């Protein structure tokens, strides 16, 4: 098996002129002020914050590009693990499991098919050799996690669609890094047989998943013994950055390792936290970390891009944009058309969003700059990738929220709005009652104070439950129309719980297989009949 060489970012990147510490501090202050102004203007104009940052960076290219730059080593070794870990600890495994098939289809075969289409068009359209063309294909088949999640934070979308988008972009980053490294192996060795390539991908992927799973589980007992939330923060930072570095040093995918570690920690570690305030502290820290990294990445993207340089090669950039859009169109519409044979079909309106949501970002630019200096066509790769990233962030970034609203994907009925508000009230009150029980058990509250506070929350619980029952009765009587999506979301969770319990009983040989299979088949039919949530 060919040994996977590490990406030599430092030798690939053209280092900007070194600035002194005081100069860097001044630049940092200026960038923070620019980001603050961008946030205010973005809110006023109702455009994406990410798009605003990129546009704000373009006019100051010549001012800062000599002192600061989008260092690919910094992006891959610091920014990327932070962003992946922050996204994965906020991902519910049960939601991910229910949408795993479309996610796997898009992040796996979809990414490969899109890369192949882009590479073939670029190879013959721009006259590049196969290795540079394939590198462009891999780089531009990647969908930016940050941009897509940012859009769905601004525009409400069905939970299944947002889960598919978040899951695809989460695993797409890892797939892009694996494919990029595999192409560098081919470039370094001169050849790689299909068997060796498949074996390399499996080792890197499964090895990364194993490393991430082991480190994630090893961190759980340490986390549960830390009663100080600040110490817990230090553990999670070390876990996110350390997992990536350990994975890379072992020759497996550090990105896959961080994804798995974040999923394990977020779904098994956070629920074991001693108090709700500790969990909020931890999640708030990672939300701030992700926001800060996003701010600097996209502002630096704008600073890094030279519009005058891109204007000179505009025809090539437009051709590449057309190529990656075509690759996305074919991979989404073709692959998802066959999804109905083994999973719930994806509505066509959702597929339109998935196509236009093919936004590029920091990882694409970092990989472009990380291409070895000795590779013929490296300058062309960097220029066309930078142009494609600028187009996708600005044009697609502005058009995507408009498309979501135009397709009425984000439409929310009055029933759903009222039900959601009551559910929030019910969830919050019951969580507060649970926290009161913990405080009483630990001796912080006296019994009298506990009972008084518990009763006040119970009043809110009873009122919310009464109103929810009234809405349910009106829905059944037809007074509120046929809106079933909220109830179907609950039914889906119940059916999945039934399926998991029965499958577990089968694995333990508690029930016979010939009785379980018809029951599970019946559950699958009920799941397919439910409306999308």
Compact summary:
It contains 23 helices and no strands. The chain is mainly α. The protein is globular, with a radius of gyration of 25 Å.
Total count of helical runs of at least 4 residues: 23
- Helix-strand category: mainly alpha
Characterize the overall form. Answer: globular
Share of residues in strands: under 5%
List segments where confidence is low: pLDDT < 50 over at least 5 consecutive residues: 1-17
Largest sheet, in brief, is: none
Mean pLDDT: 80
Report the end-to-end length measured between terminal Cα atoms: 45 Å
Order of helices and strands: HHHHHHHHHHHHHHHHHHHHHHH
Q: What share of the residues lie within helices?
A: over 70%
Radius of gyration: 25 Å
Strand element count:
0
Keywords:
Cation/H_exchanger_CPA1; 0% strand; Sodium:proton antiporter; 78% helix; mainly alpha; transport; disordered N terminus; 533 residues
Structure in words:
This protein is an all-alpha fold and 533 residues long. The protein is built from 23 helices and no strands. Helix 5 packs antiparallel against helix 14. The protein is globular. The two termini are 45 Å apart. Residues 1-17 have low confidence and may be disordered.
SSE layout and pairings?
Blueprint: H1 9-12, H2 21-45, H3 49-57, H4 61-64, H5 72-89, H6 93-98, H7 100-125, H8 130-140, H9 145-154, H10 159-189, H11 194-225, H12 229-249, H13 254-269, H14 276-304, H15 307-312, H16 314-337, H17 348-356, H18 362-369, H19 378-406, H20 414-442, H21 447-477, H22 485-507, H23 513-529
